[in-house]
Amino acid sequence: MLDLDLSFFSADLFRNFILKGLVFSVQLTVVAMLGGIVFGTALALMRLSGAKWLALPATAYVNGMRSIPLVMVILWFFLLIPFIIGRPIGAELSAFITFTAFEAAYYSEIMRAGIQSIPRGQVHAGQAVGLSYAQNMRYVILPQAFRNMLPVLLTQTIILFQDTSLVYAIGAYDLLKGFEVSGKNLNRPIEAYLLAAVCYFAICFLLSYLVKRLQRRIAIVR
Amino acid sequence: MAYRWEWDVFLRDTGGGQSYLEWMLSAWGWTLSVAACAWVVALAFGSVIGTVRTLPSRGWVLAGNAWVELFRNIPLLVQIFLWYHVVPALVPPMREAPSFLLVVFALGFFTSARVAEQVRAGIQSLPGGQRMAGLAVGLTLAQTYRYVILPMAFRIIVPPLTSEAMNIIKNSSVAFAVSIAELTLFALQAQEETSRGIEVYLAVTGLYMLSAFAVNRVMAGIERRVRVPGYVGGGR
């Protein structure tokens, strides 16, 4: 039987190896969530605009992103961004751009469902009181769609947080990398991977518990 | 800025007596086998766990919920590392297991949590009267599940299972991290060796899309054949 030695895990180790990765993973999640929701809402509005020249490219973009494995998307951006701007780009910056672009496709599907779930009468009411299209969206439709979809958006964010571990493919220093490096340096790789799993589990379990509670609170109001 | 395509990169020799095209096709085979084997594991475990979560016994429900929470809240890459580095160390018989098998279990168990969610939702979407009717005509609980509930539930959840089956093709790409010779690993290595990343990535991306599309068509065929008359999207 294997004897696990977890004593190597100390506050020093956390500060030196893991904190940096945790900060990056959280930053990546928050940036990709905010950027993804903004671009995703724009994509959803394009698809629902009724104008073909807006809807077609948006649909192609969303379906294209959703049919490719995330790892391949990460590799594509890491290859293409330097090719287009003509100079190398760090793995971390590349990850921020990739995840924002990738998550926009998923958030856009959620926002589209959210906007479509608003009764037609709301749109008509907005038009009847003389709101422009933009005002109607801004003050009537989007706030309700966003509120209805909040639990789903947050659940997608938890998936996003898990997916940030795939920056492994381009060698960015994230939470998983932090555990991996400390395991290698202290020659306790098995314990390090176990701790990584516990850490991800604790974060994601807590977050999904909070989302469930939020969902119940929203459901009562409706 | 015109890009000079060099599609003949696929005819080049890899140095091992085969062309990059042959290597890519064999990598595609690995992607499909990892995905197919993991799908079998996911369906088997997902069906059992999902069913168990609808039983009247509290202990079974808790155990099923624990399984789903465990495999849903750890990133797939971390789970693959657990199977690859930790499981062989903790379970001596697994020391000899080939990494293909470990990845199949990792991806299969990861997906089983998602399948279990769909199976549970499918069973719970049935009217409660179905179960009562089964029990009322004298079937045991096991028979009620076998002849009344599960045949209905599985036919209802084909559409969500379709998207899980497509996801498993995409998720198999994470196996590159433990050096399974599948498409993503091919893409990484061929890109490095030939510096023709765009051609290589385009071909690999195309194969992924083709695979997912094929899975979608197969599942759509199954869906047409088994859909329940009278349900949304069902026949007459």
Model description:
The complex is a heterodimer of chains A (222) and B (236). Chain A has helices at 11-48, 52-66, 70-85, 91-116, 120-128, 133-163, 175-185, 189-221. By secondary structure, chain A is mostly helical. Chain A has one domain (9-221): MetI-like fold. The longest helix of chain A is centred in the N-terminal third of the chain and has 38 residues, at 11-48. Chain A is globular and about 70 Å long. The model of chain A has no long low-confidence stretch (mean pLDDT 92). Chain B has one domain (19-226): MetI-like fold. Chain B has nine helices and no strands. In chain B, helix 1 (20-52) packs across helix 4 (99-124), helix 1 (20-52) crosses helix 7 (158-171) and helix 1 (20-52) runs antiparallel to helix 8 (183-194). At the A-B interface, helix 3 and helix 8 of A face helix 2, helix 3, helix 7, helix 8 and helix 9 of B.
What keyword list fits this structure?
heterodimer; A: 222 residues; mainly alpha; MetI-like fold; 8 helices; 81% helix; 0% strand; B: mainly alpha; 72% helix
The value of Rg of chain A in angstroms is 21 Å
Arithmetic mean pLDDT of chain B: 92
Q: What quaternary form is this?
A: heterodimer
How would you name the CATH homologous superfamily of chain A?
MetI-like
Report the biggest beta sheet of chain B as strand number plus sense, adding barrel if it closes. none
Order of helices and strands of chain B: HHHHHHHHH
Strand content of chain A: under 5%
